[in-house]
Specification:
single chain; 407 residues; alpha/beta; Aspartate Aminotransferase, domain 2; Aspartate Aminotransferase, domain 1; seven-stranded mixed sheet; four-stranded antiparallel sheet; binds 4'-deoxy-4'-aminopyridoxal-5'-phosphate; PyrdxlP-dep_Trfase_major; pyridoxal phosphate
C-alpha cells in the first residue's frame, strides 16, 4: 500500500553496510542497557523519537525491546508473563472476539505446560487459581474498532492475577485518529503496519517493568539469539526517513505545537494515478506524479490513501442485500493531524446477511472471486469474513469493482 510513497523516496534511507560490520551476536547498545542486549542503539533512539513525534505512546522511562516482528514479541510477552506470575498453574491467554487469528495459533502450537489459549475474553471467568493474560488490540484486527479497556472482569480487585498486553500495531495516524499517548504495561508495535516493511521482520515492545523486559529478552535469546542487526539498521533508516518528511527533531515539533492540518485530499496525488502511470510504463508521467506527493509527509499520504479507499468501499457496498460492513467509528480528534476523523481500518470486516445464514468467505470466493479469511479464525462465526484493504492500489481497484457487483 505504501509502495508509491517509497518509490518516490527510495533513496532517502539508503545505508551502506560493509562486510566487516555487525559480525557479533551482541549489539552496540546504550550503556549496559539493563541487560537487554539485542537492541541496536540507533533504532532505540529512532523508535522513541518517532513516538514523540506522533504522540501515540509514552516512551519516557520505558524499556524498548526489538523483536523479529511483533509476532515474536507477542510470544516473548506471553512467556515472560507466565513466568512472572506466582500461581503454579498454566496461564490462560484471552482476547475479545473477533481477535487476531495468530494469537490462538501461536499459543496452541507450543502445547505448553505454562500457557494455554482460553478464547474470547468476554466469556472468560477469572479465578484466583489461575492467572491470565488479556491481549487488547487497538485498533482491532480484524474489525478496526478502537479498544480502550480490558474486558475480563477479574472481580479480584487490584490483586487480580491478570496481565494486559496491548497490541497497538495499527495505532498510527494512517489508520486511526491518535487520541492520546498510550501508556500501558506492555505495548507492541511493528514496522509492518507503521512503514509497510513487513518483510524486514522488525517489531518493538515498550515495556514498563524491567523484570518483565528482561524475561522477554531471555525468550528472544533462546528463540533466535537476538534480532537481525542488518534489519534493525534498515528499520532505523526507514523511521528516520519518515521523520525527515516532517522535518523532525521531536523537540522542535513539540515546541511548535500541532502540525498544520492535513492537505485536502484533492491536493494529493491519487495513488491510482501513480499506479496507472507505472503500469503503462510512462516514466515521465510517473516522475511528475511522484514529485507531487506532498511534503514527503508519510502519515498524511497513508491516511489520505486509506480515506479514499474507505470511501470507495462504502460506495461499492451501498444498497447491497448480501453483506454488511463494519460501521465507521465515531469521529475523533487526532492530536497528530490536528483534524477530526473516523478510523480507517486495514481490513474490511463483512457479515453475510443472507437467510439462511451463509458462509461469507465461500460466498465471496464463489460469487466474486474475492479471497477472504473466514470468521472462525477470529473466534466468531463464518457469517463473517475479513478482506485486506492494504494491498496495492491496482488490487484494491479490482476489489472495489467486484464488491460493487453485489448490487
Ligand atoms: N498484531 C497485529 C494486530 C497484526 O495485525 C499483525 C500483522 N498482521 C501482527 C501483530 C504481526 O506483525 P509482525 O509482522 O510484526 O509480526
Amino acid at each position: 500500500m505504501f509502495e508509491a510513497y517509497w518509490d518516490a523516496h527510495k533513496g532517502n534511507c539508503v545505508q551502506l553496510t560493509f562486510a566487516n560490520e555487525r559480525l557479533s551476536y551482541f549489539v552496540k547498545s546504550k550503556a549496559n542497557n539493563n541487560g537487554l542486549w539485542f537492541v541496536f542503539e540507533g533504532l532505540d533512539d529512532a523508535i522513541r523519537d518517532l513516538h514523540r513525534l506522533v504522540g501515540n505512546a509514552v516512551v519516557e522511562d520505558r524499556h524498548i525491546l526489538v523483536g523479529t516482528g511483533s509476532t515474536q514479541l507477542f510470544q516473548a510477552a506471553a512467556f515472560a508473563l507466565s513466568k512472572h506470575q506466582k500461581i503454579d498453574a498454566s496461564t490462560a491467554v484471552v482476547a475479545e472476539a473477533p481477535y487476531y487469528s495468530c494469537y490462538p495459533r501461536a499459543i496452541e502450537y507450543y502445547e505448553s505446560r505454562i500457557l494455554h489459549w482460553a478464547g474470547d475474553a468476554k466469556k472468560y471467568v477469572s479465578s484466583s487459581k489461575e492467572s491470565y493474560i488479556e491481549i487488547v488490540t487497538s485498533p482491532n484486527n480484524p474489525c478496526g474498532a478502537p479498544r480502550q479497556a480490558a474486558v475480563v472482569d477479574n472481580g479480584l480487585g487490584s490483586n487480580a492475577a491478570g496481565f494486559l498486553v496491548h497490541d497497538l500495531a495499527y495505532y498510527w495516524p494512517t489508520f486511526t485518529p491518535i487520541s492520546a499517548a498510550a501508556d500501558h504495561d506492555i505495548m507492541l508495535f511493528t514496522l509492518s503496519k507503521c512503514t509497510g516493511h513487513g518483510g524486514s521482520r522488525i517489531g518493538w515492545a515498550i515495556v514498563k517493568e524491567l523484570a518483565i523486559a528482561q524475561k522477554m529478552a531471555q525468550f528472544i535469546e533462546l528463540n533466535t539469539i537476538g534480532v537481525s542487526q542488518d534489519a534493525q539498521v534498515r528499520a532505523t533508516g526507514l523511521i528516520r526517513a519518515i521523520m525527515k518528511g516532517y522535518n523532525s527533531n521531536s523537540q522542535l515539533i513539540k515546541s511548535l505545537g500541532p502540525l498544520d492540518a492535513a492537505p485536502a485530499a484533492d491536493h494529493l496525488v491519487q495513488p491510482a494515478a501513480v499506479a496507472a502511470a507505472k503500469d503503462s510504463g510512462h516514466d515521465e508521467e510517473l516522475l511528475l506524479l511522484q514529485d507531487l506527493i506532498p511534503e514527503r509527509q508519510f502519515f498524511h499520504f497513508g491516511k489520505a490513501m486509506m480515506e479514499a479507499r474507505w470511501k470507495g468501499v462504502r460506495a461499492a457496498l451501498a444498497g447491497n442485500q448480501s453483506v454488511t460492513v463494519q460501521d465507521p467509528s465515531a469521529p475523533a480528534h487526532c492530536t497528530f493531524m490536528g483534524t477530526t476523523s473516523t478510523t480507517y481500518p486495514a481490513f474490511i470486516w463483512l457479515k453475510s446477511i443472507k437467510e439462511p445464514a451463509e458462509d461469507c468467505q465461500r460466498f465471496l470466493k464463489s460469487k466474486l472471486g474475492i479471497l477472504a479469511r473466514a470468521g472462525e479464525a477470529f473466534g466468531v462465526s463464518n457469517q463473517y469474513a475479513r478482506v485486506s484493504l492494504v494491498g496495492r492500489e491496482s488490487e484494491v481497484a479490482v476489489l472495489l469493482h467486484r464488491l460493487a457487483a453485489l448490487k
